[in-house]
Each structure stands twice: as C-alpha cells, then as structure tokens.
Amino acid sequence: MKDDIAAAAGRGIAVGRKDRLLAFLKGWDFILSVVFAAVMLGGSFVSPYFLDAGNLLDTTFNFMEKAVVALPMLFIILCGDIDVSVGSIIALSSLAMGAASAAGADSAALVAVGLAVGLASGFLNGWLITKFEVPAIAVTIGTMSLYRGISQAVLGDQAYTKYPAGFAYFGQGYVGGTKVPFELVLFLILAVLTGLVLHKTTFGRRVYALGRNPVAARFSGVDTARIRMVVFSWTGLFCGIAAVLLTSRIGSTRPNIATGIELDAITSVVLGGTAITGGFGGIYGVVLANFLLGYLKFGMGLVNVPGRVMNLVTGVLLIVAIVIPELIKRAERRKR
Amino acid sequence: MKQFLKRREVTLALILIGFIALVSLRASGFASPSNMADILNDTAVLMLAAAAQFLILLLNGIDLSIPSMMAFTGMLVSMLNMALPQLPIPAVVAVALGIGLVLGSVNGLLVGGLKLPPIIATLGTIAIYRALVFVVSGGEWVSAHEMSELFVSIPHRSFLGVPGILWYSGATLVLVGLFLSFTPAGRAIFAVGGNPTASRLAGIKNERVQFMAFALSGVISGLAGLLYVTRYAAAQNDTALGYELQAVAACVIGGVSVVGGSGNIVGVVLGALFLGLLYNALTVVNLSPFYQTAIQGVAILVAIIANTVVDRRNRQKMLARRKLA
Which residues neighbour A335 within 8 Å (Cβ) at sequence distance 6 or greater? Predict the structure, then answer.
C-alpha cells in the first residue's frame, strides 16, 4: 500500500527497506498523520474544552454519517468513477423509513426498509452505468435529481417526524454503559470490514486493477461491469445505513436531508490520498481524513468560526492536499 | 432534408414544439406570446450558466463552482451598487465580467497550471467562493430597497422592444457559438476535449486551452450572477444554489457529450429552454412545483441514455462504412 501511494505521487516504487521507510515518510498516510496530530495539538491550544475524552467522543456524532458514506465512495473513486447521488439516496431512504413509520412499522422494520431502499437505489445507479455504458458522473447527476425529486414530490413542504421510541438509539445512543457513541462503533466496524475487503481479498485487488487500467483488467478476465455493479449497489446500501443513523439522530425526515453530503464524502476520500483518476489510495488515509476534518471543524466551532468559513478551510485543504504532491513531483523532475 | 431532420437540435426543437402543443391542450394560455416571453426571460440566466458549463463539458470536465461564482459576483456588484448607486450600467457590467474573469482564472490556474482534475478543483472552489460571499457580506443580504433603481433596471431596460436580459444573454450565446465554431482557440477546445493526446501532438498547448476555457466560463458566470441579482433584486448567500446541476442538465438534454469534444450551442439553448418550459408548465397545469426536481432527473437520464445509444449507433455505422470502402 505504501508503495501504491508513493507511486501515485510519482516518486517511483520503493524496493529496499530503506527505500520503503523513505517512501512511507514521503507518503500520504504519514503526511496526513502529521497534519492530524497538528490539528489535535492546535485544537488543545485554542480551547481547553477540545482535548476532553467525552467531547472528542461526542463530537463524532457530527460526522459519522459522512464517514460511513466515504467508505464505499473510496471504492467508487478507486474504480475511477464518482457518485454524486449519495445525498439523494439518503433522502429517499429516509423518506421510505418515514412513510413506513407513519404506517406503524417498528424499529427493526424501519432499518430493513432504509437499507433495502438504499441498496435498490445504488443498484439502479450501477445498472444504468454498466448497461448503457454511460459515465458515472452523468448517471448520478440524473439520479441525484430523481431521488431527491421523489422525496420533494412526496413530502412537499411537510416532514415526517414520528419515529418509534427505540429508533433513536442508532443515532443518539451509547454502547453499553460507556460514553462511546453507537455510531462511532458501527463506523469503526464497517471501516475494518471495508479495509479487509479492499486490501485482503481478490475483489479488492480487482478494484485496483480496474481503476488503474480498465482495458487491461478486462483483458485479464476481470468482469469489470460486475465489479462496478457491486460497488455502486454497495454504496447504496451504505447510504441506507447512513440514512438510518441520520434519521435516527435528528428524528425527522425533510426533503432537504443530507444535501451536499456527496461533497463531504468525496473531499475526505481525496484528502485521504485517493487519486481521483482511480487505482491509487487506501482505507487508512480515508478513515484518518474523516477524523481530521471532523475534529478540525470541532476545533473551529469551539472558537466560534461560522459554518461557511469552515467550508472555506475544507475547500482550501482539499486543493492544497492535491497540489502539494503535484508540486513535489515537479520539483523532483527539475532536480533530475 | 433527411440529414437536416436527423440533426439533434431539430429533433429537440420538434420535441419542444410538441411539448408546448400538449401543455396548451390542458391550459390554453401556455402558448400565448406573453407567457412564452416570460419563460424566455426566466430562462435567460440558466442559458448563461449552461453556456458556461458547456465550455467545460467540451473539455471533458465539469465546473461545479458556477453558482458560487454567480453568487460572489452578484454579492460584490450589489455591494458596489450600495456604495456607488449611480455607477453607469456599462461600468457595472464591466465590473461583473472582471470579477467573473478573476474567479474563472483561479479555476483555470488550478486545472491548467497545477493539473488538478476539474471536478476536484471546482469542488474546492465551490466551497471557497461561497464562503467568500459570506465573508464579504458578513452573512447579510442586499435587498431590493438597498439597490438603486438604475441597478435593478438592468434586466428590464428594453431596446427594440426586447428586454435587456435577453440582449445580454442572447449576445453572449451568439458570441460563444461564433467563438467555438470560427476561431482557432474555439476549435482547440473541441480538440483538447475530444482527444488531449492528439491535440498535444497537433501542437496545441492543452494547459492554455484549459485555462482559457475556465476563464471564459468565469466571465459568463459573472454576467449570469449580475443578471440573477438584478432580476430578483436580492443578493444573498444562497444565490443560484444548485444551478450547476441545472446547467449540466440543460447541456446533456441539448446533446452535449459528457466525455468531451462534442456539442453545439444551439442544443444547449434548446436544452435550457426545455427546462424553462417544464418548470413553467408544472405551475400552468396545476402540478405541484415539488415535482420539478424529479421530472428534471428523469429528463437528464433519458437524454444521456439517448445520447449514448445514438452515439454508439453512429460509430457502428461509421465502422460498417469503412469496411465497405
């Protein structure tokens, strides 16, 4: 993996142990870890309330849904695709849960409905993309409008606000008698599973193969269409999970729920060192990037930075994150 | 004649006429000249945003920051108007174009100079420009009573019986069309979008073409931002939110390829008109305006699938012809 990232930044593939260490130190995961440490350090300087276990745990409520969506988004971007419809899938899935709840469904049924609608929406994305061979960005711009539009058409200016009492646990509860949010634990489990699939299975290797050279992958007998189908459906499923968490946390479904979450998810995947052109990246960077962005916002919130300005910082961070490797690459080329 | 009928724009124009006829059956006032004029006026800003997006789609990119550039330009010119209420209109327009040029050039530098993929560069600037609107305005609106009469008259002042907003956007669209068809720089955009390797080998400086396209896209967005705030007589933080998708929708409905290198400004105009007609028709036939987004989504999906299928058939025909020869 470290080799991958080193190669992604154009620094050549490391061979010996010393080269490997050097590649790691120059690699994205390491840079990101340093930035993360800097954010934590800076945060504890600006506010005495920052470095507090309870606060650090509780603030994860604010970014776990995005983090859950970022996991499958990593796969999509590794494939060289993009999915901008994730926020709309969450809206549709939340709408279905609201309708089911209004019809008297219990918590377990609501979760099932949310996951099923998410999975179906993702499947439709994948089917349209592979069946008609249309670029993912075009299809998901269409379905982004369609899925969001369905929830607007059904709800208008209304909202579903009645959910069963036990349903609040998923988005608001803590595990056991501890101070650890259920959302956080669920995310960590999903992240480990995602990492295992990506780095330890044939499927994961095939995703990398597909992302680096789809034609070569196809000629090597990789069923690229099927892989993309699976990845998009899986994204839908994870959006369903995010919809359960989000709906449960805020206790209501409005048509504008989760608007713009696609930008957050893509930002953390790219900030995590994933090449937008596909084929390069890994789970560690993406998980770290989610916490980095989350705690950065938490820190800024503690010193009363307005939300819009936080977005400015995230935007700059995103661009800088991609510009730096490009500049390093240029400097090294000049040296040679 | 057969060739002419087969052209994408002609098909789309026929669909538009059919759509107008169909809606008129339900609501007779729909096709009236005054309603059609309203729709044109309502769609003028979208047409500009679509033209800005068109330039980038041609390059096989996407510009997500268009609405943010519109909002930032709109806010700055409105604040300028509060400071200097009697600034002559040409000066106001020039300022708007200038601000757009700066914003677009930043995108252009990121993409052309620093080699960022367009989607990432504009994903960053969409947030940055929108945040700058907040920073310069302090989160306040500029509302109608704070704008001078001269300023809000910009879209309405008519010349030869046609309101200003149509002159501004009409002239821009014609210029974009001429630029793309008849200048080397315009043709270069098609070349870079269609096949960047081939264009480089042909001696085109791809990075410069990318920079130019983004800068132009910014200029057009700047004008669109000025027309937006003057038409609605309000500049806010949320100005033009979501316009990037409507602009993409107009383009793909108009037959612009999402993988770059192919498209036509007439198609873009018709695509934007289709969306304008659709939004207006929903209210006229008493359907809830909340259906708008869903129908727009279906229209986008149908259009891109149709584009792809037609494209593939054409390519197969070309291959078949080559075999015969």
Answer: none
Q: What is the DSSP letter of A181?
A: B
A150–B127 C-beta distance less than 8 A: no
| Residue B161: CB atoms within 10 Å | 5
- Nearest CB partner across the interface for B114, out of A133, A143, A326: A326
Which residues in chain B are contacts of A308 at CB distance < 8 A? 130-131, 133-135, 139, 237
Chunked into runs of 10 residues, chain B (325 residues) has average pLDDT values of 66 86 82 83 91 92 90 90 82 90 93 85 87 84 78 78 84 91 88 85 86 94 92 80 85 84 88 88 78 87 84 77 67
Q: End-to-end distance of chain B based on CA atoms, in angstroms? A: 25
CA A99/CA A160 separation, integer angstroms: 7
DSSP notation for A94-112: HHHHHHHHHTT--HHHHHH
- Can you tell me whether residue B285 is helix, strand or coil? coil
The helix (H) or strand (E) run that includes residue B162 is strand B162-163
What ipTM score was computed for the predicted complex, to two decimals?
0.84
Q: Which helix or strand (DSSP H or E) is residue A268 part of?
A: helix A261-271
* Range from A6-15, A199-208, A238-247, B226-235 carrying the lowest mean pLDDT: A6-15
d(CA B172, CA B166): 10
Q: Which of B117, B237, B305 sits opposite A276 (nearest CB)?
A: B117
Shortest CA gap A135–chain B (Å): 7
Burial of residue B184 (CB within 10 Å: 0-12, 13-18, 19+) is exposed
Q: Which of A82, A145, A312 shows the shortest C-beta gap to B297? A: A145
Residues 239-268 of B with CB under 8 A from A: 245, 248-249, 252, 258-259
Q: Would you state the structure tokens that stand for residue B17, as one six-digit string?
A: 């006429």
Given a contact cutoff of 8 angstroms between Cβ atoms, the answer to whether B262 and A107 are in contact is: no
